[in-house]
Amino acid sequence: MDASTFVGPFVPELLLLGAVLLVFLLDVLEIRRNEWLSTVAVAATSLALLSVLGDLGVGFLSVFATLPPGLIDATPSGTSLYGFTSLGLIFQAIFLLSALLVSLASASRPSNEKGAPIFYALLLLATIGMLLVAIASDLIFLLLAIEVTSIATYLLVGYHRHESRSLEAAMKFFIIGALSTVLSFYGASLLFGAYGTTNLYALGHATSSGGFPVLVLLGYGFLVAGLAFKVTLVPFHAWAVDVYDGAPSDVSAFLAGGTKKIGLFAFFLVFLGPILFIKATGAGSSPFSGGPLDLGPVLTLTLAVLAVVTMTVGNLLALLQKEMKRMLAYSSISQAGYMLIGVTLGTAPGITGATMQIFAHVLMKGGAFLVVAGVAALGVGPLIDDWKGLGTRRPLLGAAFALMLLSLAGVPLTVGFVSKFVLFSSAVQAQGYFVWLAVAGLLNSALSVFYYARVLKVIFFDEAPGGAAAAVPAPSVEPLGAGGLGYGRAVAIGTIAVLIVAFGVYPQPVLGAIQSAAQHFVSVGV
Amino acid sequence: MFPVLSLVLLTLLAGTVVTFAAGRYARWVALFTSFAFLAEVAFLLASYPGWPGYASGTVPGFADQESYVWIHLGWLQVNYTVGVDGISLVLILLTAILQVATVVYSWNEARRPAAWFGLVMLTCLGCLGVFVALDILLFFLFWEAVLVPMFFLIGYWGGPRRRYASLKFFVYTHVASIVMLVGLLALVFYSGASSFDYGSVYVSARSLVTVTQTFLFLALFFGFGVKFPIVPFHTWLPDAHVEAPTGGSVLLAGLLLKLGGYGLIRWAVLILPQGFHEAQPLLFVIAFATIAWGSVVSLAQRDLKRMVAFSSINHMGIVLLAIALGSSLGLLAAVLLMFAHGIVSALLFMVSGSVHHTYGTRDIPSLGGITPSTPVLATMVMVGSLASLGLPWLISFPAEFTALLATWDGLTYWVLIPLGILVVTAGFYIWMMQRMLFGPPKGIPEGVHDLPWNESAAMGLLVAATILFGVLPFFLVNLITSSPIHGFPGT
User: Fold this and answer.
1) Confidence of residue A475 (pLDDT cuts 50, 70, 90)
2) What is chain B's mean pLDDT, rounded?
3) Contacts (Cβ under 8 Å, ≥6 apart) of B488
4) Are B389 and B430 in contact (CB under 8 A)?
5) Could you tell me if B127 and B146 are in contact, meaning their C-beta atoms sit under 8 angstroms apart?
6) Taking the mean position of all CA atoms in its chain, how far away is CA B331?
7) Which residues form the domain of B343?
8) Residues A431, B190: C-beta atoms closer than 8 Å
9) Residues of B with CB under 8 A from a CB of A
10) Per-residue pLDDT reduced to its tens digit, A80-91
11) For residue B435, what are the CA distances in angstroms to A281, A293, B318, B360, B440?
């Protein structure tokens, strides 16, 4: 095999792997200053991002393309372990963007922090796993890639190992994660038992050929449960809040903004095949009728119920929260419910909407957690009420955070509005009972406005307790640039704020790319 | 063609951005932008092809139309499409007048003036956008964009219960707009319209069956109705008004309520004629309930501002009645009423704001005989009240007269209900004037000054508009009747 055809497709992954090794090398050479390591991670992720964008053919960036022509969106063979779809590449870009922003913001962590090399190495390793998820075309490959990310993130969550909260979160995350892995692999083994293959394309096209309906149903049932843990769907969500809350906020940004989305892409890969295939062929009537197996309606209904329950429960619980991070964590759960609408629809518009929502969520939720990390570094407590008067003291930071919350609430001229608009439009466009998914989603966004507006009220309208003098805490460590925020974090937050508005005003470039990718994804039938 | 409307939008947008950044010069930037906006609106009016004397009496479509691609995804065709007809021009003129008046009135705003003037202009920008948008997403976008500045105007500059009021305002109107959005999306996708443009929806919605039309109409009516506000969903309005700063109240009553009326006409009544026809009885019941409720509750208010707020509900009920009639005369009356109420309620809210900071209270019974100490303010109270109760030669008169005429035309003797209630309305204004303006002086503190120059100027502008359009209503009537309202039931 020619080296270029073998290396070319994996340039992003190899870049990150190289950066991991470089970080370890620097560790051995005792170069452990946080800023240096952050620079390595930022450089590696941006180069990888450029390469992925080049492969997608984004304007002049196509000079960075490394994939051999003809490899993208090739017809799946039914036996391959991995394949390159344009939708997968878009997800790679989204994942890399999340990793890039988090490593950029992490430059503002204390520069002599212990274990900084481990932090960046784990961050990059988790990203490699995410990139592999986006190119998986085999169930086992997919689950292993998820595992690569998961193991790295268990360690990231417990990275502050002297804090009991962080450790507890890591332990919880690990046990639940292990359980979910077991469930997924068990489901995969049942499917292999039924069909003799684990290739996703072959599985998608096999589901109507009958055979062992109970085995297949159980297999998909276990997969739904196993992957639902990763996506934090209710009732598989209980771990998420404690983990997002206990983890360092930069890691929470990566978990909620980045790694959670691999579960959603896995949903695309695993469940769209059967849904689409049944839809296309119109085969089958009921899973137990003895005739051809009709998984489509069963899966659709299951996913629809999960979507509505997830967004509703997430929002209701978010309303009750007093701590900022727990509120954001529950809001993150509810957002997963919105994204699931797209999978449920199983149409190109639905996939477009869900992907756009995922992109928006990386920006707005990742950004919100980065602000939380920055504000915590300024010495502000974890309660929402501790943020009183922040908007008056730090107008720019307050405005950026307000922008992220408004985007999460779906207020126009933000990217969150565009994504929700496309997502709910796609549900109405599918007609039938899918319209109720749009209604449920819209009512839920109305509900979510309550808690976002409450935070805005606290930040901008409430006076800080004890007057302005008491509100400015003394810096505990050496003061950072950009008014104590640190330049890296300030740049990351500023970039996110600009992107939220830019893609809120003119989303066509992103949306157009996602739409044509989704169109292709659906037409091939995974 | 020269993109006039985009230029107008851009003027306001640039003015808003600069105002936010201008620090202590914010008010000058705001004033300059407001006058530029007013001049551009004058140009729009002068160049409108629907005037008598131009080639045709009725405009075949919208004037100054522009359309650019925005989001094109195959199944989702969204454009930036703007255009005006007479109905929107009347309301755009109202926006321009109220913006100048609000900026001048709050000239000496001391708390964060840059943010204040910026948010005021942002509100006006949103309203202008709603009036010119001819694409569903663009319309919805501007519609929602009005909420945010108003939330901050009430929540930061408002009275003691401002937090509760701003939150209630935001949640009520946001929930309503969500229902409206589902209705609008369903309108596009169920009718199979080729794009989100007004034109294509207008054409394809006519093929919808009556049941679908009715459901869609009800969803849209709920969305627009909460802004009106219609009676079971009106409770956000008194709270918002009482807590809002004067400038906020002026924009809220003068412009935001008009969005509901405009939306109902443009996006529901004209697009879904059969659904409208089916829902007509419901609209009448709600309209009568709103008129009666607003009027009776006003009568019981001691607080001047609260009284004006409830009388707004009453007036908007008459607007709803005029729209519900489904005739072109009713439509004319509705738009005239909206313009009249915009000017007059703005004047009255300014008056109650000035009474409050001149006398330290808005409690009507604890004031009396204020005319000798503050003659200018008392005159403004009088003009506003007389205009609001529908005195001839003032702007409300032609509007209310047309509304009653249209009601007689459509419902014959039912006209006695709004007519009787108008007497009640006149009653509470006259009673208020009698208690506050005349009689022995009461509750007047030492060393009271009459209005500062900027407040007199702002109210003077509104009084001038009240008289000008009251004496020469044909100026507005021509604009409205030359609008493309063919396809409207009854024409």
Assistant:
1) very low
2) 89
3) B269, B270, B273, B326, B328, B331
4) yes
5) yes
6) 15
7) 4-481
8) yes
9) 69-76, 137, 140-142, 144-145, 147-148, 151-152, 155-156, 162-163, 166-167, 170-171, 174-175, 178-179, 181-182, 185-186, 188-190
10) 888 888 999 999
11) 79, 81, 27, 17, 9
- Inter-axis angle of helices B474-481 and B328-359, nearest 10: 130
pLDDT at A431: 81
Asked if B235 and B169 touch (Cβ cutoff 8 Å), the reply is: no
What pLDDT does residue A149 have?
95
Inter-chain residue contact B148 with A511, CB threshold 8 Å = no
Please state the three-class secondary structure of B100-139 as a single string: HHHHHHCCCCCCCHHHHHHHHHHHHHHHHHHHHECEHHHH
Structure tokens at B147: 């909420």
B139 belongs to a structural domain: yes
C-alpha A360/C-alpha A414 separation (Å) is 9
Helix or strand (DSSP H, E) at A63: none
Do A428 and B185 meet the contact criterion of CB atoms below 8 Å apart?
yes
User: How far does Cα A129 stand from its chain's mean position?
Assistant: 13
Tens digits of residue pLDDT in A232-265: 998 888 889 999 988 888 899 999 888 889 999 9
HEC secondary structure over B52-69: ECECCCCCCCCEEEEEEE
Per the omega criterion (within 30 degrees of 0), is the bond before A110 cis? no
Span A395-440, pLDDT tens digits: 889 999 999 999 998 888 899 999 999 999 999 988 878 888 998 9
Residue in chain B closest to A348 (alpha carbons) equals B75
Of A349, A406, A461, the CB nearest to B163: A461
Place A479 in a pLDDT band, splitting at 50, 70 and 90. Answer: low
Give the amino acid at A144: L
Q: Determine the Cα–Cα distance for residues A312 and A333; give it in Å rounded to an integer.
A: 9
Residue A239: strand pairing partners: none
**Residue B488 forms part of a structural domain:** no
Burial of A43 (0-12, 13-18, 19+ CB in 10 A): middle
How many whole angstroms separate alpha carbon A199 and alpha carbon A215?
17
Chain A residues with CB inside 8 Å of B148's CB?
A: 406, 411
CB contact under 8 A, A424 and B71: no
The mean per-residue pLDDT over the stretch B260-267 comes to 93
The pLDDT-based confidence of A474 (bands split at 50, 70, 90) is very low
Span of A163-167, A500-504, B381-385 with lowest mean pLDDT: A163-167
Q: By CB neighbour count within 10 A (0-12 exposed, 13-18 middle, 19+ buried), where does A403 fall?
A: buried
Residue B490 lies in a domain: no
CA distance A335 to A330: 9
| CA-to-CA separations, A322 to A245, A325, A328, A381, in angstroms, rounded | 12, 9, 11, 12
Chain B closest-CA separation from residue A6 CA (Å): 35
Instruction: Return the amino acid letter for B232.
Output: P
How far is the CA of A174 from the CAs of A148, A154, A166, A446, B189, in angstroms? 13, 6, 12, 35, 45
Q: Is B206 within the bounds of a domain?
A: yes
Length of chain A: 526
What number is the ipTM of this complex? Answer: 0.79
Which backbone phi and psi does B202 adopt, to 5 degrees? -55, -45
List the beta strands (DSSP E) in B308-411: none
Express the helix, strand and coil content of chain A in percent, nearest 5 each. Answer: 75, 0, 25
Number of residues in chain B: 491
pLDDT digits (tens, 9 = 90+) for A332-354: 999 999 999 988 888 899 999 99
Alpha-carbon distance of A353 to A335, in angstroms, equals: 13
pLDDT above 90 as % of chain B: 59
